[in-house]
Amino acid sequence: MDLSIVGVGHVGLVTAAVFADLGHRVVGLDDDRDKLDTLLAGDVPFHEPGLPELLERVVADGSLTFTDDLSVAVDHGEVIFVCVGTPPLPGGGPDLRFVERVGREVARHATRETVLVEKSTVPANTGVRLTQVIAHELEVRRADATAADPDDVHVHVASNPEFLREGVAVKDTAEPDRIVYGTASDYARDKLREVYAPMVERVGCPVVETDVPTAELIKHASNAFLATRLSFINAVANVCDRVGADVELVAKGMGHDARIGHAFLNAGLGYGGSCFPKDVDAFAHLARQVGYDFGLLEEVRDINVGQRQVVLDRLRDELWHLQGKTIAILGAAFKPGTDDLREAPALYLAESLLAEGATVRMYDPVALDGVAEVLPEVERIDDPLEAARGAHAAVIATEWPQIAGLDPSDLKAALDYPIVVDGRNCLDARAAIDAGLHYHGIGRGHLRVR
Ligand code: UDX
């Protein structure tokens, strides 16, 4: 099929490459010419394992091309996927200006029956709004006697949320757990069936076909539910700390219940990234707008933010004042496998420590350039033990293998004071204590009971 992807950021680029690899002819549109030049030169502007190789292949065989000309993308795509950014606004809701603009422009330039698919995370009702914008534009076209006859033009709005995780985005997109799309016409539903048919055939994943608002809600509810699990286990961890229990084993014991499962029960510094923090706020905002107070989501967010305080309190307990102390933060990205620093807990920690007068050093295998841009006062060191050398304490903020695999004796030898706050519970706690480290995990209260 001829598909167009509007916005080749993280979601758009991965989606475009995977669709091209499925055998579709894909055009990726972006108005950032520098980004397109980078892509055409064979470089990927962010870290995503497997994507450079896939892109090279589909660009070389011509199944994926790029343009900054909207009319080219609209002419090409019988199905057009909207993957533009929806950044958060100060009130908690997402900024939908870019989504609206795409709807308007597609209606202005479409020359035939087209399916416009929301892939960006948008509030339920965006489909209704887009349909309205498109109807207005088509009316203007019909009223304009000089315009090409728009009577054959029909733009069907659909919603097809993505569930890809950064770091494993290619796999999540090519082999999804499920495919969800919501449509308002048989035409749009049949087109989306056709888009995904080769994937369903290959992977055998379930397909959930719905109306548009239901598909939008599935995305909201999935992310909010996962964030709720994380805040739940973090709250349990805080109780474990106080009663001398081990949250790792609590999670294991819970996870064996088939109704609960093991995934997303790792307690720690809390979630970050471009999705969960924004999506939880956006869902709470949407609920408020439609007259429902979804207070649970406010609590989920507060527990998440509170986890950073747990780490800072541990440091203060051990070091008294942080003024004049040197703290090594091991890991900067919001999770391993990415260089994404959006809402990364490590950055919040660094800012708080700097504000309290500490010197901060950071190690990360891929995200240090980004740290230089947002926090130039942080000392950046490209080896974890060198970052720890001579520091008064180390905080583990991201469970990269290079960090989780550190030998506790080496860490002890490097540090000035042997204090480690493991914000991701990724070190072997017993081995750390045996090596002579003052080891603090999250929810590992059992370690204090000897
Ligand atoms: C998430 C969703 O998983 C994905 O479906 C959606 O489309 C986009 O948002 P992503 O933000 O890439 O993906 O990261 P994910 O792997 O889900 O992790 C989110 C955060 O939760 C990370 O900060 C991670 O460190 C944290 N996390 C995850 C935990 O603290 N504990 C866990 O057990 C799992």
Describe this structure in words.
The radius of gyration is 24 Å and the shape is elongated. Strand 4, helix 5 and strand 5 (114-118) form a beta-alpha-beta unit. Strands 3-2-1-4-5-6 form a 6-stranded parallel β-sheet, sandwiched between helices. The chain has 450 residues and is α/β, with parallel strands linked by helices. The mean pLDDT is 95. The chain is built from 18 helices and 14 strands. Helix 9 (212-243) packs parallel to helix 12 and helix 11 packs antiparallel against helix 12 (295-319). The chain folds into 2 domains: 2-210, Rossmann fold (3-Layer(aba) Sandwich), CATH 3.40.50.720; 246-440, NAD(P)-binding Rossmann-like Domain (Rossmann fold), CATH 3.40.50. Bound molecules: uridine-5'-diphosphate-xylopyranose. Residues 162-166, 223, 226, 230, 264-266, 268, 271-273, 275-276, 334-335 line the site of uridine-5'-diphosphate-xylopyranose (UDX).
Please indicate the count of domains: 2
The CATH topology name of the largest domain reads Rossmann fold
CATH architecture classification name of the largest domain: 3-Layer(aba) Sandwich
Shape descriptor reads elongated
Number of helices: 18
Biggest sheet details: 6 strands, parallel
Number of strands: 14
How are the secondary structure elements laid out?
Layout: E1 2-6, H1 10-21, E2 25-29, H2 33-40, H3 51-60, E3 64-67, H4 70-76, E4 79-82, H5 97-109, E5 114-118, H6 126-143, E6 155-159, H7 169-174, E7 179-182, H8 186-203, E8 207-210, H9 212-243, H10 247-255, H11 276-289, H12 295-319, E9 326-330, H13 345-355, E10 359-363, H14 368-374, E11 379-380, H15 384-388, E12 393-396, H16 401-404, H17 408-414, E13 419-422, H18 429-434, E14 438-440
Parallel strand pairs: 1-2, 1-4, 2-3, 4-5, 5-6, 7-8, 9-10, 9-12, 10-11, 12-13, 13-14
